[in-house]
Write a structure and sequence with these properties.
Number of strands: 6
Strand content: 5-15%
Largest sheet: 6 strands, parallel
Distance between the termini: 19 Å
Strand order of the largest sheet: 3-2-1-4-5-6
Order of helices and strands: EHHHHHEHEHHEHEHEH
Helix content: 40-55%
């Protein structure tokens, strides 16, 4: 029986992927560079310092990692605090899981400075027993380290824990470490949907599906019907 759940943020709980596409474009346009789909795909699962190093090397920028990250933060902080919305049905799912004794954690490549005000604004910050960033473990989601730390923090083994993710890279890492994996569709990576489904124990287009045709899957994993 599943005793814990780990949630990605951007593209899973939060409808924020379009913001990051805009930030990448603005950042590179300021330097006369072109933001390509290949670049955005390459950085999606990286830890933020890893992303900054990659960006500096790829575009031959004469800037420090800290300066690059600070500019990204300046572009993102206000949007997270004031405008980024949750995916439909996400808040209700979190509340239901907590009500049924499921321990909750976050595993994200973003930094706390950006997303914590957003979680507080939506009233879900207190639902999580642990929040782990890629910066905490020093590597992005190409490694299962972030999920293993989150599971350890909430006192469950991978076999007792489900991971909700929109990225194939994260799903592959979590699956390899023994987690139950639930893939969720985000429109900004729709071209990777077949891969998401192949790497997931169950894949959903949105959290509302767990109340309808996917309800039998939800019950088989969590032991109760989501009403």
């Amino acid at each position: 029986m599943i005793k814990g759940c780990i949630f990605d943020l951007d593209g899973t709980l939060l409808d924020s992927m379009s913001l990051w596409c805009d930030i990448d474009r603005i950042f590179l346009e300021r330097r006369g560079k072109v933001c390509t789909p290949e670049y955005q795909k390459a950085i999606t699962a990286m830890e933020i310092r890893e992303t900054a190093r990659y960006t500096i090397e790829l575009f031959d920028l004469d800037e420090s990692v800290d300066d690059v990250i600070e500019e990204w933060h300046e572009l993102a902080v206000r949007e997270y605090a004031e405008n980024i919305m949750m995916k439909s049905g996400a808040k209700e799912l979190l509340a239901s899981l907590r009500d049924h004794g499921i321990r909750l954690a976050v595993a994200t490549s973003s930094s706390e400075r950006m997303f914590i005000p957003c979680l507080r604004r939506h009233g879900i910050y207190s639902l999580f027993s642990s929040i782990v960033t890629a910066g905490d473990v020093g590597i992005g989601k190409s490694s299962p380290a972030i999920y293993l730390k989150a599971a350890s923090d909430i006192g469950v083994s991978p076999s007792e824990c489900a991971v909700f993710e929109d990225l194939p890279t994260g799903l592959e890492s979590a699956k390899g470490a023994g987690f139950t994996c639930i893939g969720i569709l985000d429109e900004f990576i729709r071209d990777e949907w077949d891969e998401v489904k192949a790497l997931s124990d169950g894949a959903i287009h949105g959290f509302s599906e767990l109340r309808s045709e996917k309800n039998s899957f939800f019950k088989s994993v969590f032991g109760y019907n989501l009403q």
